[in-house]
C-alpha cells in the first residue's frame, strides 16, 4: 500500500487530476461571538446614546495571534443593519471587542456602530459575523418570557 500512494499521486498529477490537500484553517476557528445583548435593560426610547450603547455584541479572538478585521462585518437577520469593522482595526490574541449600537470613540476594546436607533429586535434576532460573503459565525437571541418581563435580553454565544 505504501508503494501505491506515491504512484496514485504521480499519475493524478500527470493527467491533471486534482489531489485533495488539507484545507487551510478557516476563520470560523479564530473568531466567535461572546455576548449578544439584543434587548438592553429599560425602555428603548427615547433613543439616547446611553441606551443605544447598552445594546451590543461582542467578538472574541480565540487564537494566540493578533487578527486584522479588515473586510469583516456584522449584520442582523434581515441584513438591514450592517456594521463594517474599521480597515485598520486589529483584535489582540484572546481579546474581546464590544460593538455598541450607538456612538462613541473607538478603542481597542469598544467600537461604535453610530446608529440612531436600535439594531437588534427585542423579540429575537440573529447576528452574523462575515468575512466578505463568507459566514464566520452566528448567534441567535430568542427571549424567554422572563427575559422579556425583566428586560434582561442577552445571550452568551
Automatic annotation (TrEMBL):
This is Lamin tail domain-containing protein. InterPro entries: Lamin_tail_dom, Lamin_tail_dom_sf. Keywords: Signal. Residues 1-27 form the signal peptide. It holds the Pfam family LTD. Residues 19-145 form the LTD domain. The keyword Signal applies. The keyword Nucleus does not apply. It comes from the Bacteria.
Amino acid at each position: 500500500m505504501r508503494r501505491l500512494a506515491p504512484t496514485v499521486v504521480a499519475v493524478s498529477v500527470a493527467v491533471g487530476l486534482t489531489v485533495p490537500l488539507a484545507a487551510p484553517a478557516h476563520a470560523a476557528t479564530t473568531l466567535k461571538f461572546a455576548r449578544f445583548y439584543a434587548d438592553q435593560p429599560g425602555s428603548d426610547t427615547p433613543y439616547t446614546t446611553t441606551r443605544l450603547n447598552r445594546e451590543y455584541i461582542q467578538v472574541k479572538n480565540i487564537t494566540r495571534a493578533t487578527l486584522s478585521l479588515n473586510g469583516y462585518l456584522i449584520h442582523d437577520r434581515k441584513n438591514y443593519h450592517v456594521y463594517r469593522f474599521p480597515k485598520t482595526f486589529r483584535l489582540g490574541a484572546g481579546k474581546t471587542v464590544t460593538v455598541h449600537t450607538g456612538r462613541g470613540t473607538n478603542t481597542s476594546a469598544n467600537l461604535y456602530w453610530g446608529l440612531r436607533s436600535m439594531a437588534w429586535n427585542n423579540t429575537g434576532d440573529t447576528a452574523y459575523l462575515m468575512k466578505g460573503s463568507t459566514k464566520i459565525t452566528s448567534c441567535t437571541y430568542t427571549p424567554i418570557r422572563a427575559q422579556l418581563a425583566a428586560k434582561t435580553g442577552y445571550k452568551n454565544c
